[in-house]
Structure formats: C-alpha cells, structure tokens
Request: fold
Amino acid sequence: MIPDDPPPFAPFERVRSLRLYDSPWVGLRRDVVRRAGGPERDHHVVEIGDAVAVVPVCDDGGIVLVGQYRYPHGRTHWEVPAGRLHAGECAEAGAARELREETGWTARSFEPLPGFYPINGISAHWAHLFVARGCVPAGEPQHDELEQIVVRAFTRPEVEALLDAGRCADGFTALALLYHLRREPAR
Reply:
C-alpha cells in the first residue's frame, strides 16, 4: 500500500519577477513572493530545461555506463547516459538519442521509470528516467566537442558494488539505477 502524499499547501503569490540571467543552458530569476497574509520574500529560481536519463540494459542483464569528465568539480565518474531534451522532443525520443550519442548503442525498447526533481527547492527542472532494454552496439558515439566519455558494460553485481560503495556520485545515475534494480529481480 502506497501512503498518500501530504495535503497540498496554498501556492505562494508571486508579487513580481525579475530576470537576472539568461542563456541557452540556464536562466535565473528573482521572484518576490508572499504567503497568504505574510510578508514579501525573495525566492531565486533556476530555470533549466527538462532532462532525460536512461539505464541501458543488455539481454544478459549487463548495464552500460559512461565514464564522463565533469568540469564543475573536475572529476570523472561512471554515469548513465543523460542530457537535456531538445525543444519539442518527447522524453522517450530524448532517451534514445542520448543513448545513441553518448554510447553508440541502441535499444529494442524503452520503459519509463519514476522521474524526479533534481534541484527541487530552487527549480522546476524535471528528469525523466527510462530503462532501455535489449541494448547493443550500433556504431560510434557522437559526442559533443566538450564531452570526454568512455563506454563500458558492467555486470549487475559490479553496478551494485559501485552503488554500495557510494561511487555513483551523480544523482541522475544513482536514482535511475536504484529504481531499475529495485524493479528488476536479480537473475
């Protein structure tokens, strides 16, 4: 039995909004908000387009991960393929595109997993999660000019060991893998 969500609160009133920064990747605005009968307060909102992350699963149960360098913290770690959705792109098509671009692999089918808000307190940014089944190599990856990526297939026990050791430091990756592994019985 799934517990009910908490009862909803009344939304804040947005008194005014000021755009502080805008780029093709991210926007920042300062909203002045007020709870019913309360004082005005600043609330900064980060605007980021929705994203997709995909757990690529092979017919033998292996899981394909990408080792990717991330500039903001200067580290390389294992991740599931992920990225932003293009304008007007449906989430499943974005998952197929990211899988092909980052790994060079394709999938027989895609199944949705629960999504999530990666930075819930400061953004409405939403991440769609999928399991890609029947993954096979289909050619060379198509990396962006700033992407540094290596592709590797892992066994399920290896992926579980990475998770248990805290080595999946990317939230998209950890949550997508955990949702998948809880729904997929071990062979």
Notes: The mean pLDDT is 95.
